Structure formats: C-alpha cells, structure tokens
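User: Design a sequence. Structure:
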C-alpha cells in the first residue's frame, strides 16, 4: 500500500519512521507528541530533532478540524511592544482577511527558544504558512525544517543571511544614509549612532549606511559614540544617557529605530536639553508614535503596514503554489523631516 501524501504531493513521514531514525520506540514518540507520561529530556530533544530533520508535523485535530484549520496562518513577531510590529500586523491581517484567512499571532519577546516553540505549535495545528519576524540571534539553521515541511514561510523585517526562504525587508542601508546626510547638511560634525545589537543584520545594515554617509562627507567617526542597546525605549534611554555623560558629547544622534529615538529624547530632557534646539535626534521606521511625540520625530518612513501587506501576499502565493521560487522584496525608505532634528528652527532663525 502506498504511503499517504500531503496536499503538496510530499510523502508524509510516519511515527514508525521517526522512532527508527531516533532509535526509540513508537510509544516513546507518541509520548513526546502528546505530552503525556515521562520522557527524559535528552530523549525528547532527540525525537524532536529527528521530527524536524524528516519534516514531520504532528496534526492534533481530527480530519474535520484539520479541514477547518486549513485557512489559518501563523504570525510570529519578535517584539509586539514596539508599535512598528503592531502596524506591520495590521497590514498582514488586512490582506489575509480579504483572502479568507485568519492569523494566529504569537510574540516571542526576542526569545529564539520561544520562537521555535510557537512555530512548532502552529505547524502542529495545521497552519498553512508562517510569517516570521525573527528574534535576536536567530540563525538560518533554525529554519532548516522548511526544506522538508509542508508549511510555507516568509521572513520579514530582519533578513536572515543563508536562509533559503522569501524575505520582505525595508531599504535599511539607503534609509540610514539619507537621514545621516540630512544631519550633515545641517552642519553637524559630531554625530552618534545609538541602539540595536551588533549581531542584528538590520543594525549592521543601518549602521553601515550611517558610516557610508559620514565617510563620504569626510566626517570623523568617533567609536565612543557608537553604542549598542536593546532596540527598546529603555535601551535608547540608557545609551543616550551614556553619550551625554561624555565631556565632548554629540550634537546629533542617529537612532536604530523610533522606539530607541524616543527613549533618547526622554534622556535628553532628563539632562535639561531641548531636543531640536540643543541636540538633534532622529529615528527609523516612522511609526504613528513618531508623529505624536513632542517634538515630532524626524525619521525614515518604511511603511510597516505596506510591508505587512506585501509579506501576507507573498505567503499566500507560496501557499497556493508550493513549488514557487523564493522571492525577496526590499521596501523603500524615505526621509521624513520633523522638529526633532532642528531643521525648522534653523529655517526660522535664517528667515528672521
């Protein structure tokens, strides 16, 4: 009798094959799948790794539930506390709803362990595809299951070098160069770069754009003004407090994202500085919060809603055609000038 196949035509792996490959009994595999009984941690990990290698996905529902869940996709976000990802999710859900799909959302809070858990659970419950905004320290090998699995995957916002999957990301290098040139054109010499962790590809790209603009303009890059931090408001507050404690502090600051920039603005105010007059601070992303803080934040607009729409459309394309080639989309990054950089104040002073 031929082995059963998935809807994409791939042969489904059986529990017996998992047991043979892992060197355990069929009952042990069943205990790992159902979560019942006691299985040694090492054995459980061995079974789970074998499942990933063979592309096995445990379906928890009966046949009728499986059919009902076929219109479900997973949305795995690395930091839902960041307004950017909330806006990204709005774009994803807009496209999915129009296509008759519903998204199961999970927040990993930058944990790779949590990320692996929720993606496994989504696959077990029959998700037809997953949109992943990778957590910090995610590596391409964390996505090796895609090669054997019957689940479409799109990686968004944070590109993963070496991962053979579709990507939807903003134009990080060019965007950072544009906003840095803007500060240079405002005659700033001593410019800091704050936020993000060096291991993050997005940080590397945005900081690379900053460096390129500084070097092209002949500006000196002071390594003491390059501070890493978690990409959060608290991270921005701490990094900004550190550079403001220097004897020769910067006159302008480029921040990894809007959330870091807002934290930096709070730190500047705590030190008695007026942002836009005493120091220029700029961000990246153009979230709704950037428009409503005071002073309003100069930033780089990448259209998070539009990126979410593009990611959802690309995922639906791959669900419809499992043989579709991987694609990459790089969204535009445009400079948005507001009060925090001091451009308006300089214009008014020049006019007066």
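Assistant: Done.
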């Amino acid at each position: 009798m031929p082995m059963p196949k998935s809807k994409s035509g791939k042969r489904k792996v059986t529990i017996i094959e998992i047991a043979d490959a892992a060197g355990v009994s069929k009952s042990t595999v069943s205990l790992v799948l159902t979560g019942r009984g006691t299985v040694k941690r090492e054995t459980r990990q061995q079974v789970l790794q074998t499942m990933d290698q063979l592309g096995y996905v445990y379906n928890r529902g009966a046949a009728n539930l499986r059919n009902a869940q076929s219109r479900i996709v997973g949305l795995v976000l690395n930091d839902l506390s960041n307004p950017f990802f909330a806006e990204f999710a709005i774009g994803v859900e807009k496209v999915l709803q129009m296509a008759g799909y519903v998204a199961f959302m999970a927040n990993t809070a930058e944990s790779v362990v949590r990320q692996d858990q929720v993606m496994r659970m989504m696959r077990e419950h029959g998700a037809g595809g997953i949109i992943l905004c990778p957590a910090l320290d995610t590596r391409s090998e964390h996505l090796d299951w895609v090669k054997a699995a019957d689940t479409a995957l799109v990686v968004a916002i944070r590109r993963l070098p070496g991962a053979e999957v579709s990507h939807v990301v903003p134009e990080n290098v060019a965007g950072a160069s544009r906003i840095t040139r803007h500060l240079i054109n405002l005659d700033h010499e001593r410019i800091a770069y704050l936020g993000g962790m060096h291991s993050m590809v997005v940080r590397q790209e945005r900081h690379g754009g900053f460096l390129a603009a500084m070097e092209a303009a002949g500006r000196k890059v002071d390594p003491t003004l390059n501070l890493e931090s978690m990409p959060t408001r608290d991270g921005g507050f701490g990094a900004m407090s550190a550079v403001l404690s220097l004897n020769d502090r910067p006159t302008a600051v480029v921040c990894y994202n809007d959330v870091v920039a807002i934290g930096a603005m709070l730190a500047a105010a705590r030190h008695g500085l007026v942002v836009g007059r005493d120091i220029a601070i700029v961000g990246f992303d153009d979230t709704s919060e950037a428009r409503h803080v005071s002073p309003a934040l100069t930033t780089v607009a990448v259209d998070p809603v539009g990126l979410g729409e593009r990611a959802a459309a690309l995922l639906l394309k791959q669900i419809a055609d499992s043989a579709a080639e991987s694609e990459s989309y790089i969204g535009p990054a445009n400079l948005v000038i507001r009060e925090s950089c001091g451009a308006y104040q300089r214009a008014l002073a020049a006019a007066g």
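DSSP finds 13 helices and twelve strands in the chain. The mean pLDDT is 89.
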